[in-house]
What does this fold into?
Amino acid sequence: MKNENKTSHSAEIYDSQIRSTIPYYDFIHDETINLVKSMVDDPAIWFDTGCGTGTLVEKASKEFPNTRFILADPSQEMLDEARMKLSSNPRIEFLGNLTSQEIGKIPQKPYVITAIQSHHYLKVDDRKKAVKNCYNLLRQDGIYVTFENTRPSTKHGVELAKNYWRNFQLSHGKDPEAVEDHLNRFDVEYFPITVEEHRSLLENIGFRVVELLWFSYMQAGFYCIK
Ligand SMILES: C[S@@+](CC[C@H](N)C(=O)[O-])C[C@H]1O[C@@H](n2cnc3c(N)ncnc32)[C@H](O)[C@@H]1O
It folds into this structure.
């Protein structure tokens, strides 16, 4: 069984620990939903890749009562947690344990694709493949929303941002050793690129609109239209 859960949390404790790692974690989901709401009334299909434990879809399915949600994640453990959380909802289905690069055809093309904090584990070529695949899966005029850990523009900026993020995690009760462990994974297990690199990647892949939605600590969010 493959397991690409590269987060520092095991799937069972992910939900209880993620808020002390990613600043504004809930807002990231809430604002993704608010943005989509402002752009489309009733998307028929919403695909969430790297769905983790399904928290975004749990919220979005309440706000979009007619939308069908399709989820995938390479980690079987994450999918098991998501299934436990969401299985009673007949509008939610799972594609299986797949990376964004691997996903083949989805029977009906999604109007919305979200990839929240799930592509920064990829190096250049695989990241390109993952985003290109999301682009190809999306229907024309569809919306792609992505958030990632993002690299500040200068070496000094990286150090400052790490310290800023370190203080966030410590002040939210995370064990100091776990915090260092997490920050040491920068450029080792997650490979952040700058806002400008995100923008050119998304534009080169073919999105006709590419906009910065969010920047805080080391997380950036973008929305794009095909
Ligand atoms: C930090 S978690 C984010 C989960 C969820 N999107 C959320 O908002 O809580 C990162 C997730 O990305 C998944 N992941 C890792 N590599 C991936 C890839 N190549 N394509 C899609 N998902 C990936 C991991 O298995 C993990 O569930």
In short: The CA atoms of residues 100 and 195 lie 21 Å apart. Residues 155-171 form the longest helix (17 residues). The first strand starts at residue 45 and ends at 49. The beta strands are 45-49, 68-72, 92-96, 112-116, 143-149, 209-216, 219-225.
